[in-house]
Design a protein that fits this description.
This protein is an alpha+beta fold and about 350 residues long. The protein has eight helices and 16 strands.
């Protein structure tokens, strides 16, 4: 009796055209997960990536604070008015004015078990299904961290009701009507005024809105009808369903808003965020209608090789390959309520 070549009967065996696929391919999975991770970031997509500063190792980044530099006259008030001003003054930039510190100590992990790695890796669509789920899970966790940082920065009572005020507390913009998440024309005007009073340009800022506020754009007649916005055809938001800018400021939407409800001890994700304002209302009942964020306000950094790492092992009892995707990162908000106004809380009008 002729001998039987058992490899012909093994899934992805040596005689199978998919033989190379029966092993986990980290390069492919890592790139796919990272791609979906980056695409799904909302708050994180606005952050400046400082990972290069810890590429050689380390878990902390220091960013010195500094006041605004003031230029002086080049020439002194001499008889001929042509002598350079003396002595020329040099301002020493040190950490005496304080510093922002980012700790690269936060982490996120997501895991999945796949029973037939050969079939999954041989199918682009199926592999992307798993990679997208892993990437989305990591991105949502990172966005969650940045959302908490933003809330802590703008509130007067911090995210855990500790009594500490955020560095940007007081940077409030009345954006909606009293006790409402509905944007009105006056709110848009207030937003534009806040930008210019911060000595900035419209294109420097982005609005991040929760769905309840974003959807109210279509209740605003000045925005929704094309002759009120100068748009026509498919650009009409009532036709396209897409609202890209408001008052020239880009608008993005996130479900990942955090706030502290009345008498709560810590912030929690919510579809109807509230704001603990300093207008005499001690309970957290005022509406938090979004954030107005400068392009230089948010920062993020990933530990070396840990932006979206993927590892695996074969689990014999379940006859499946187990995948783990993780990231180690830190995030930081650099804004204050005096000379460096880069983050504003969008709120409802005081009652």
């Amino acid at each position: 009796m002729a001998s039987i070549d058992s490899t012909k009967f093994l899934s992805a065996g040596l005689q199978d055209s998919t033989a190379a696929l029966d092993k986990f391919i980290p390069e492919i999975w890592g790139a796919a997960v990272q791609d979906y991770f980056e695409k799904k970031l909302v708050f994180g997509s606005l952050a400046n990536d400082l990972s290069a500063m810890v590429a050689g190792g380390g878990d902390k980044i220091h960013l010195p604070k500094h006041g605004e530099l003031v230029a002086t006259d080049l020439y002194g008030a001499t008889a001929n008015n042509d002598a350079l001003q003396t002595p020329l003054s040099f301002g020493a930039e040190t950490t005496s004015q304080g510093e922002f510190t980012m700790d690269i100590s936060s982490s996120a992990v997501a895991a999945v078990s796949i029973t037939d790695i050969a079939k999954v890796q041989s199918s682009f669509d199926v592999m992307n299904l798993y990679a997208s789920k892993l990437g989305y899970a990591l991105a949502k966790k990172v966005d969650d961290s940045i959302s908490k940082k933003l809330y802590s920065a703008v509130t007067f009572n911090d995210e855990d009701n500790s009594g500490a005020d955020g560095a940007s507390s007081g940077n409030n913009v009345v954006f909606t009507a009293v006790d409402s998440y509905n944007i009105n024309a006056a709110g848009v005007a207030n937003m534009l005024q806040a930008i210019y009073e911060a000595d900035a340009d419209i294109e420097d800022f982005t609005m991040i809105l929760p769905p309840v506020v974003y959807s109210s754009l279509f209740k605003l007649a000045e925005f929704a009808k094309y002759d009120g916005t100068g748009l026509a055809g498919d650009s009409n938001p009532l036709i396209s369903g897409f609202a890209g800018k408001l008052g020239g400021v880009p608008v993005i939407v996130s479900n990942n808003f955090h706030s502290v409800a009345a008498d709560a001890s810590a912030s929690a994700q919510t579809a109807s965020p509230v704001f603990n304002s300093a207008d005499g209302n001690n309970g957290e009942t005022d509406k938090l209608c979004g954030y107005l964020v400068h392009k230089d306000a948010l920062h993020i950094a990933y530990a070396a090789g840990m932006k979206a790492r993927v590892q695996s092992e074969y689990h014999l009892p379940s006859l499946a390959t187990r995948f783990v995707a993780d990231t180690v990162y830190g995030c930081l908000v650099t804004s204050d309520n005096s000379t460096n106004k880069k983050v504003f809380a969008l709120t409802d009008a005081a009652s």
